[in-house]
Request: fold
Amino acid sequence: MITSCDEAVARLRAVPGLSCCARPLFVLPLLRTGCLSAVLSVEGPDAGWEGEFGARFHALEPDSGVRDHTSLGAGVHEVLRRLARTGGDGWRGRELALLPYTSMKPEWRTALDALGARLTQPPARPALPVLGDKRAQRAWLRSVGAVTPPDAVVPTLDHRELRRRFGERYVVQTPTGSSGRGTHLVTDQAQLAPIHRSGGGPWLVSGYVEGPAVNVHVLVSADSTVRVLRPSVQLTRVEGIGAPFGAYSGCDFAAPALLAPRALERAATASRRVGEALAALGYRGLFGADFVLDGDHPLLLELNCRMQGSTWLLGELELAEGALPSALRHVLELYGHVTGGEARTDAAGAAQLMVRHTGAPVRVATAPGGGLHRLKDGRLQYCGAGFGLLECGPDDCVLLQLPSPGTVLLPGVPLARVVARHALTTADGTALTAHGRQLVDALYAGFVLTPLEEPLDRLLDRPAQKPVEEAAEERVGSAGPAGPVGSAGSVGSVGSVGSVGSVGSVGSVRPVGSVGSVGSVGSVGSVGSVGSVGSVGSAGPVGSVGSVGSAAPW
Reply:
């Protein structure tokens, strides 16, 4: 059994590691421990990461000059295609071990083979088809004793009947989808028309529930042991940061201490029960359980069977405490190596807030620098290099994922992520604190954005994306009820279109109410399951993936 970080690192460093993710931030614990030598991603790393972590980063955004809604699957495939066009220098004959953030897609493996790289993957795990459909997952969760929001599967959408059954606000979801795709908050008849046109029925319809959104990390070990880890409050319905209904806006690991203890205890019990059921199906590794709290009663919305957008921040806390980071444990468990160590569930000071661009497509003329900052006289003052929570003092913040000058931004894309040891939102994760508002205002003020002068489609010289791809890193399930995420379809969709005049407001990067996020509501129960599925095992135990199971290299 591996119980220390030194043991884990020694094991993982035996063969150079490769990871595929939407943004390098998500694998920060693997980078900090020197376990990765190559990262394929959609967004590029922040300045200084390559030198700090000694890894090679191959990303779509720096090459294309566009930050859009390209999914993880399409983005990594395009990166591999571009590597192939350049001859894939340095890849032929290279031996790599997959340290999975999410499942390896067959086309990625084919492309890596063509580059001449020798890749070892975790042993293949059994697929979990019951989790690949939102309707099926919701039913499965109830079958193992979980309490979910009220719902129904309907072949047609009759607003009058659905309103009678679920109230003035309800959520409609297509069977598959993630990150808000296929999930819609409905308050009137007119909103059903575009849902009908997009097809995808029968639909899962859920009642909307108001309440804090809580995510619980759970680890299923190779020996079937289930450990419940730290919970976090998921930030949702936060006005003024550009987030549409249900979209993932960040998390706070200290906020659970301010919520009803009984509700959190019940959420932990439900998470363990679901983990035991997944273990019986053969699942191994991390998963996240998304709840919305209805008073003292947690309602389970969905499962994210993989590392999540909050796992890296949990890893920062664990590294600071000298513990084995959950991200490393996830990888080791997938390769069949049992890990041990105390599972901490106490609250800890760590928060991240995602701020998005709203308005028409624009080009970044000036952007704040990433790294460690402090708020002084209403302005962000740069204090030095910073890559995450570990460099952050009690009064500081670290800015991450900032676009480089010259980058084109589509509507709804992340503009920056603010990381701090203190709260940026209220305890329920639905509104900025006064200090959080000052930080966001100062961040927006640091950008100068200009309208596009060239047609947008000329910039997007890439294959069309599939409508439902597993960009799941930020699958809003988290977003509480909204789990369904982005509902309002807002997100994704909108962005895509943007082109429109490139122009628009320009500069005004301000989220300008744009958001207020549809119905502020977004969160909770709204849809419960919501993304429920999406990622979740759909592919089976996540990372497991791609068969090729050949055994572990370590």
